[in-house]
Target: TerB family tellurite resistance protein
Amino acid sequence: MSFSDLFDSEFKQRNKGHFSAIVRVALADGKFAPEEKAFLDKLALRLEISPAEYAEILENPLKYPINPPYLHEQRIERLFDLARMVHVDHHLGDAQDLLLRKIGLALGFTPENVDYIIEKAMILVDEKVDLDTFVSEMLKHS
Model:
């Protein structure tokens, strides 16, 4: 396996893990709202999740555990990836904040600060900051 194949494989696995995390959070109440399902359909295309992988993840999202990072900075980096995915084009409307709050809790942010963390993350994502700026700003305020 070449280095580029390894990179592609790791990138695809990470995308499947992120997608699975979002599916798990969206399924937390036992079902998808129509706007959540439409969002997942669109997100799967953007993440290059094949139809077979999509069906497999919907059937068993636990196959790819969320595994919240141990270090706070790594949690912020994961939040950056997931917030950008959820925020892609405001497709979820008001459900976006609820989904991100659930993701924040799943990543290990506390109920006491998750609302602030998500609000700050969304402001930074709206500003289209890069990862380094996102992490730096989030560490200042968390």
Notes: Helices lie at 3-26, 34-46, 51-59, 72-87, 95-107, 114-126, 131-141. Residues 21 and 66 are 5 Å apart (CA to CA).
